[in-house]
Every structure is written in structure tokens, then in C-alpha cells.
Input
Amino acid sequence: MSTNTAIVTGAARGIGAAVARRLAADGFAVAVIDLDEAAGKPVVAQIEAAGGRAIAIGANVADEAAVAVAVERVAAELGAPTVLVNNAGVLRDNLLFRMTADDWDTVINVHLRGSFLMTRAVQKHMTAAGFGRIVNLSSTSALGNRGQANYAAAKAGLQGFTKTLALELGKFGITANAIAPGFIETEMTAATAARVGVAFEDFNAGAAAEIPVARTGVPDDIAHAVSFFVSEGAGFVSGQVLYVAGGPKA
Output
């Protein structure tokens, strides 16, 4: 069964990089896709140094033509992809009355259009193999978060997208699940701390005080959950949203 090639988008840093490294350790050849191909090279180097196989590909996931080229390159260089992790994302936070149409469109396009285009391009390889694993990165912000009308809408939309994929693709041996991280220590959360004028250490400490397990999350926490969802043994788990947030609520 051709089930050993994975694509991870937004994989140059943070959660995406951790997921790429974990899937490589699990035995997958991994396509590290990010906006800038050069940015993905260090992750590829880490994977190769650990004995894995990976390539870096530069692509804007919201660009239909770029997605088609990227997926075909993966198939040609690594083998037909049967695992897809839609992780690429951006923030354009602002309160509603200050949010521009561009702020809205950019976030919706990367998260929702990007996940749609990537999934549509990859599913043909999955259906041909009779096996597929799709994991979409949602967020606890899907439940609503001040200053994130665009991001919250996109992340909630991904949950509906995931459940529909599960319904449509299940008969082909393909599962689709979503992971909704809580507070994870990444460059993205560091940027949020800077935007609100709080030192990152203090920002983390404030978040940890609200989390039942009394710590903030790290990218490997999400990578571990992805590893489970893409495993062959998780074939009876589909259409689910797993909140990885250190407790029962954001």
C-alpha cells in the first residue's frame, strides 16, 4: 500500500515544522511546503540529519496553479501523497471596526481556500491508493476570540470542511479530522504578545494560569496528535475535532 508520503503546509516553522519532523520520524517521506522554499530547507536538513526523507517546496496554498504544481512535484519526487496536514495559516488580528477587507480576505484565503485547494489536489492520490489521512488545523479561536473575527471564522469553517470531507471520502479509505490547538508557544503567539505590548514570558505565564494542566502548549503537543490521526490504526476515527488545549475549554 502506497501510504508513505506526507505533505505538511506551513511547515517551515512552529507547529508545521514539528509535525513534519514527527511524521518523518514515523517513517513518512515529507514534503515541507511553505510560501518560501528556502525557509523550509532547515526543516528538511533536520529531517535528513535524523535519517529521514524530505523536500522543501515553495507554494502559496491559496494559488490554484501553484498548488497543482506543488502536489505533482511531491508525487514525482517522493511518491503519491496519502497524508495531508493543512497547517498553513496567517494572522491579521484587529477589532471588527478596524479590520480591513484585505485583512479578512487574506486570512480566509490562506486557511479555507488553501485547505480546499490542497485537499482537492491530493485526494486523487488518496482515492487511487485506497488510503488517505487528512488533518486540518483549526483552533480554540473557532469558539470565538476578541480581535479575530477573520481567524475565528476561518478556523470554525475548517471544522465544517473537515466533517464534510469525512462524509464524502470515507468510502475510499480516507479519514479527515481536525485539531484545534489552544495556546501554543510559536513565533505566531510571540507576535501576538508583541502586538499587545506584553513580554512573551509574561504572556505565556498569564496563559498558563488559565490552563488546567498549568502550562502552555508546545508544537510537539500538536505533532503527537497528528501522528495519531494519520496512523493506519486510526482508520475508524473520522470527522472529529480534537481540542489540544490543556483542558476542556480554551
